[in-house]
Amino acid sequence: MFEQDFIDNQKIKLEKEKEELEKSLSDFASKETENNWETKYPDIAPDERDPEDSADEVEEYVDLLPQEYTLEIKLKNVNDALDNIKEGTYGICESCKRPISKERLEANPSAKKCIECIDL
Ligand SMILES: [Zn+2]
After folding, report:
1. SS3 for 61-89, per residue?
2. Could you tell me the distance, in angstroms and rounded to a whole number, from the CA of residue 10 to the centre of ligand 1?
3. Which residue has the higher pLDDT, 98 or 53?
4. What is the CA(110)–ligand 1 centre distance, in A?
5. Distance from the CA of 117 to the center of ligand 1, in angstroms?
6. Where are the domains of the chain?
7. 84, 90 Cβ separation under 8 angstroms
8. What's the CA gap between 100 and 36, in Å, rounded?
9. Would you give the DSSP letter of residue 48?
10. Residue 69 and residue 21 in contact, taking contact as beta carbons nearer than 8 Å
11. What does the alpha-carbon distance between residue 110 and residue 74 come to, in Å, rounded to a whole number?
12. Over 60: is that where the pLDDT of 81 sits?
């Protein structure tokens, strides 16, 4: 369906994206499993906290959660795409099972749906 050259190129892009995502995540989260990262909670003993500092830390933690979640979803999509390359099913729309256009895959190597299905 796609030439091997195209797939190889996409794979390089995906692996680079994966590396960057893992790097961003590792700044504030620790890897639990391949697709699951835990945001690090500020690690300070309770008796060393003054109440004001503690409130700031909780706020920071809460701010990081959506960021972690977004990166984690992206990372999962990238890992799924890499799995699909291994299985030879890369670039198939998960809704209509037709090939996703090359232009779309070039713009977004971890796309899961074709342009027709994306907004449904
Ligand atoms: Zn589709």
Report:
1. HHHHHHHHHHHHHHHHHHHHHHHHHHHCC
2. 19
3. 98
4. 14
5. 4
6. 4-92
7. yes
8. 27
9. G
10. no
11. 8
12. yes
Identify which of 110, 58, 57 has the alpha carbon closest to the alpha carbon of residue 83: 110
CA 108 to centroid of ligand 1, rounded, Å: 15
Ligand 1 centroid from CA 62, angstroms: 36
Q: Residue 120 C-alpha to ligand 1 middle, in angstroms?
A: 9
Q: Tens of pLDDT along 16-72?
A: 999 999 999 998 888 888 778 888 766 555 555 566 667 777 777 778 888 888 999
Q: What is the Å distance from ligand 1's center to 36 Cα?
A: 28
CA of 52 from ligand 1 middle (Å) equals 51
